[in-house]
Write a structure and sequence with these properties.
The complex is a heterodimer of chains A (128) and B (109).
Chain A lengths: L2 E5 L3 E2 L5 E8 L8 E8 L6 E6 L5 E3 L7 E6 L4 E6 L8 E13 L2 E11 L3 E5 L2
Parallel strand pairs in A: 2-11
Antiparallel strand pairs in A: 1-3, 3-8, 4-5, 4-9, 5-6, 7-8, 9-10, 9-11
Chain B lengths: L8 E4 L5 E6 L10 E6 L6 E4 L13 E6 L2 E6 L8 E9 L3 E4 L3 E5 L1
Parallel strand pairs in B: 1-9
Antiparallel strand pairs in B: 2-6, 3-4, 3-7, 5-6, 7-8, 7-9
Classes of the chains: A mainly beta (128), B mainly beta (109).
Chain lengths: 128, 109
Amino acid sequence: QLQLQESGPGLVKPSETLSLTCTVSGGSISSSSYYWGWIRQPPGKGLEWIGSIYYSGSTYYNPSLKSRVTISVDTSKNQFSLKLSSVTAADTAVYYCASQVGYCSGGSCYVSALFDPWGQGTLVTVSS
Amino acid sequence: QSVLTQPPSASGTPGQRVTISCSGSSSNIGSNTVNWYQQLPGTAPKLLIYSNNQRPSGVPDRFSGSKSGTSASLAISGLQSEDEADYYCAAWDDSLNVLFGTGTKVTVL
């Protein structure tokens, strides 16, 4: 049974870079059937997709965050990571990682909005 | 369009049927499948309906989904107290973006 767990600092200073890691267990991050995604939820607000990565390194980012986001994958550790630069208070949120149905084949990639399962989430607060 | 539009709230008494709408456009719901997520208080979202109308194993059959054109709906029949939660729709957008709905809070009266 696939499980995901987020880890990283719970407090980040404004203008600095937020860094989180998601560890996948119960399955291989090199699976050809999944992308691996990051989603966030500001306190009391809705869900926002940040971006996703395939084991081969193919990435998709939310256009509104693309200039500040980098997602990477470490297949040897079964982990993928999120970096969000130049953070402000508006980046305060619970950050979730999730497995996302998708694949790449013959040079083309398909990504869905089907996320299952999700990690438990980690609250990151941006404050000095 | 950067989000899918849902009503902010819905409610019903135990046993009633509640329906939640999700409105999008031709580039998202109109051309891609819709998924629904349930978020119980203080927990991570959980997949409730995928590919417009499919239930994952373990999801009660009182939950059902449908799609028509650029809109989708989630129905909860036989509403139960444990269904009190936030519900989100989601779809891939052809602009290479995942869109989530604005979310609907369901209250069991």
